[in-house]
Amino acid sequence: MDITHNLIINASAETIYQAVATKEGINGWWSKDCMVGEKEGEKSLLKFDKQGTIVEMEFQTNTLVPNKSVVWTCIENANPAWLETKIITEISDSGNGSKVVFSHAGFDEKWKGQEPFEMTKQGWEHFVYSLVSYCENGEGQPW
Fold it and tell me: Mind listing the pLDDT tens digit for each residue in 77-105?
C-alpha cells in the first residue's frame, strides 16, 4: 500500500530537491528539529513535539539524484506501520514549474483501514500542503 500525491509545484526542480534533501529544507516544511543525512547511506533523525511528548523518526538515505529523486527508508518510528516504508520524491520539469510525485510507499496490507495508517494519510495531507507552500512561498508549516 502506498500514499501518493501527484503535485505541480510552481518552483524549480532545484528548489524542491533542496526542500526534501537538506536539513534547511526539511526544517522549512516538515520537522523543526532534525538532523538530515545529506549523502547516500547517511541517517536522518526528525523530532516532533506532539502535545509535549517528543516523537522521533529515523530514516536511512537511500537515493539522492540532484533535482530528480530522493528516497529515504524509515528505520525507527513509534508508529509500527512506518517501519521499512519508503519516502519517495520524484521531480521532473513541467513547463511553468515542476511535477512532483511524492509517495510514502511499502505499507504492509495489514495496516489498511487501521489507525496507524489512517493517521499517516491525514498527516501527509498537512505536510504535502506545507511542502508546496514552502517551495512556492518560502514558508511551510513544519511541526
Answer: 999 999 999 999 999 998 889 999 999 99
Q: Write the CA distances from 18 to 2, 27, 68, 89, 129, integer angstroms.
A: 24, 11, 11, 11, 17
3-state secondary structure of 6: strand
- Is residue 86 within 8 A of residue 48, CB to CB? The reply is no
CB 140 within 8 A of CB 130: yes
Residue 31 has φ and ψ, to the nearest 5°, of -130, 125
CA distances (Å), 124 to each of 89, 115, 132, in order?
13, 14, 12
Give the integer Cα–Cα distance in Å for 31 and 129: 14
**What are residue 95's phi and psi, to 5 degrees?**
65, -95
